[in-house]
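Recall from the previous lesson that a structure prediction takes nothing but the amino acid sequence as input. Here we apply that procedure to BadM/Rrf2 family transcriptional regulator from Luteimicrobium subarcticum. The sequence below is the only information supplied.
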Amino acid sequence: MRITSKIDYAVRLAAELAAAYPSGDWVKADDLARAQDVPAQYVLGLVNTLKQAGLVVTHRGAGGGAKLALPPDRVPVADVIRAIDGPLASVGGTHVEDVEYRGSAVAVRDVWVGLRAAMRSVLDTVSLADVVAGELPPSVAGLIADDDAWRTRPNRRDTRPRGASSDSVTSA
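The prediction returns the following tokens.
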């Protein structure tokens, strides 16, 4: 899955709103932008999109700003992503369960459905409260405890620097 800057910004801004939730304070867009080093021009648009999805409420005026519409423990990260980008997995705008392939590619749909299920197992499980607390559910914590989870796997091209021997490169 490619995590766009827009999704990254939205999840980080939602985490800031989750952190402020217990105080009941309205958080200004400038404060959100500054806290997460998100370009200010994105903040209002992202907050508005989250508002349209029912995840955020806003209030205009001197004492206004934004806050979560729900307690942070009731907002999974997946809902923030869906609000910004739509379904977790789709193929050319079509839901993965609705794509149809022929011949040797028939099972590709099942791969996409499995991928969506795997993403849901993390993104629907982790709430904004978990993110703010820095304590992920055991199923997710177990995934990231594996050292291999922290390594990017290059495609199978030879990614060695010129002149490097194959003995000096480890598989990722």
